[in-house]
Amino acid sequence: MMTGEIWTQLSSAITGLVLAWVMFEQYFPHQLRGYLEKYSQKLMSYVYPYIQITFHEFTSERLKRSEAFSAIQSYLGSNSTKTAKRLKADVVRNNEPLVLTMDDYEEVTDVFDGVKVWWSSSKTVPKTQSISFYPAADERRHYRLTFHKRNRDVITEKYIEHVRKEGKAIAVKNRQRKLFTNNSSKNSYAWKSTKWSHVVFEHPATFDTLAMETKKKEEIKKDLTKFSKGKDYYAKIGKAWKRGYLLYGPPGTGKSTMISAMANLLGYDIYDLELTTVKDNSELRKLLIETTGKSIIVIEDIDCSLDLTGQRKKTKEKDDDDQSDKEKDPVSKKKKEAEEERKSGSKVTLSGLLNFIDGLWSACGGERIIVFTTNYVDKLDPALIRRGRMDKHIELSYCCFEAFKVLAKNYLELESHEMFGKIDELLGETKMTPADVAENLMPMSDEEDEEDCLKRLIEGLETAKEEARKKTKEEAVSKAEKADKEGGETSSQVAKENGEISAEEAKENGVIAGG
Hints:
By secondary structure, this protein is α/β, with parallel strands linked by helices. The protein is built from 17 helices and 15 strands. It has helices at 2-27, 30-47, 67-79, 152-173, 214-228, 231-237, 255-266, 281-289, 302-305, 311-326, 330-344, 350-358, 382-385, 401-412, 420-429, 434-441, 450-514, and strands at 50-56, 58-59, 64-65, 87-90, 99-102, 107-112, 115-124, 140-148, 178-182, 196-200, 242-248, 269-272, 295-299, 368-374, 392-395. It has a 7-stranded mixed sheet. A 4-stranded antiparallel sheet has the order 1-8-7-6. α14 packs parallel to α16. The longest helix is centred in the last third of the chain and has 65 residues, at 450-514. It is elongated and about 115 Å long. The termini are far apart.
């Protein structure tokens, strides 16, 4: 009977406290609530001897993920597996053990120089929630470090720095390189917590397997290595730690393979930026902010991505037409502008792209490489590819004999063969891309051997040589016919003019004779 009365009284007390809390939250003024919390915490500090430090996942209004949070996550993932009861598992690399991290609302302890600390993970869910299949996008995660106030100096001066360094080292060890692509601005949903989506980057290309002259490959490798170690140098000369590469040449000459080899050499992530899905210049800056260091930002076929080269001309034409536009019906003009805006899709401008490459926002973060690829370098605006923006221009051309030898070693494991002389001669007389050479060298079945593949390549080169000869001949004939036609038209025009003059003279003479 006594137990029942106790439970009844306890439930009544809890109900009263809940009611009081609801009333406090709803009706107590926010200004007074701030003072109350301030002085209540001050009062608690006299009886509660522990200090708490919170590390949030995002900083600067969610523009960028906190490096401190990432380092703590890696550190706790390595040190919490023995004590935590709830863990999260993830696969970092194939055929390697799972990587375990601390789950939400879990607490673990750590000891540093005899000082005991407590780590807890938590997340904050917004009070105003919308109905969504992906509510995790609005969650704010954080880690909280708790320690005794007498150990303040040890924790703030030594322990936190120790956690940061250890966490970074663990992250590098377990790092899984990624290939990112930007999410379309038109189809952005609340559940997408970032503007990039990614897959694991596993391209096997290296400079050793790249079909290119050895001297040129070594030059590029040295340039990349010097950049990756140049943090202090770039700071000394007052430049952002970034470098631009322009890869140009015909289709099939290995531009995309070169990018993969660069990423594998340096251990960088790749951000494949699709400009046509970017809404405007502001969106482009946000994409840049969300990229990390140790990365290559790629814009492939930039001459086809947007009509950046003609924007200056269009602007001038628009200025010339302003006067005539003023005379048109305002309603029609507005409809026309809306239609042009709908057709153009992206509003990224040449100016916005230039600022993205080397403007103020390009200095956010460091150790980034920006790569443009194009098949037609002459189509690009000179301001886009000048030195300082695209620091190194690399031409990837048709296959030479040295590049062929690399491909022969890759595909057939051959370093020499009696047919190499004939292939060397044909490569000097005709143009074939490394991609076409590689396709001819690849065995089509288990029955084919090295000699069959080399014969097929020779046949392909001879066919390409004959087609090039015919094309040159046809162009010469066409050019001659065009010249003859233009010459005939000129002669006819001259004869016509002479005939008209003669008729006029005859008429004049006849009139004079008749008179």
